[in-house]
Amino acid sequence: MSSRIEQIIEEIEEYIDSCKFQPLSSTKIVVNKEELEELLRELRMKTPDEIKRYQKIISNKDAILEDAQQKADTIIADAQAKADRIVSDSEVMQKALEQSNQLLDQTNSQAQEIVDKATTDANNIRMSAISYTDEMLENLQKIMEHTVDISNQRYNNYINSVQSCLDIVKKNRSELEPSAAPSSYTVPDDEPEEDEKNASGANRDVKTDEM
To answer: Is 39 in contact with 12 (CB distance < 8 Å)?
Structure first.
């Protein structure tokens, strides 16, 4: 919004532009003195008021600028405080993250140690179980081998005993057979053998029957 002084100045300029030039001149014009003086008079009257208004505006402007500066300073201070809090929170978060990572690393390390120990214990138990089982099987094998040896020995003794009895039986039977007579006994030449006598008698009996 323009002031009255600015409006009067514009009216003076328009008035000058509307005036006619003097004859044979391109710079001098013919003006209405009363009309121009009226405009200048109003301009003089309005000037103090306008100056006061401008002074007031300037004063208000300073106050406004000072208030704006205070508000800006307050905003900047608040922003700085928030930034400090954010930085502080960020540092806290960073420390918390570092502590969390350290805790996670420690937990993973402890978990790995537990797994390794459990694996070692399991392997030791497995090896102990295998060793114990092998020892038991070895003892069982020895017992069974000893049993087999004793059984074979007893079986062989039994077979030998039976074979001895069998040999005695065979010997006794052979002694009972006629052909088992002593080889030193000989039949006399002048006496016919018992078999020949029996054979002759049998022949005589056959002939008698035929007659």
So the answer is: yes
* 25 in Cβ contact with 66 (< 8 Å): no
Question: What's the half-sphere exposure (Cβ side, CA atoms, 13 Å) at 140?
Answer: 6
**CA–CA dist 30, 80 (Å, integer):** 68
Given a cut of 80, is residue 69 above it in pLDDT? Answer: yes
Between CA 146 and CA 153 the distance in angstroms is 10
If you average pLDDT over residues 116-122, what whole number do you get? 88
Instruction: Report the amino acid identity of residue 77.
Output: A
Strands 20-21 and 29-30: what pairing? Answer: antiparallel
- Assigned token pair, 91: 């540092």
With 0-12 CB in 10 A as exposed, 13-18 as middle and 19+ as buried, what is 206? exposed
| The length of the chain, given as a count of residues | 211
Tell which residue, 164, 141, 160, 140, has the closest CA to residue 152. 160
Q: How far is CA 10 from the centre of its chain?
A: 87
Q: What is the distance between the alpha carbons of residues 128 and 109, in angstroms, rounded to a whole number?
A: 28
pTM: 0.32
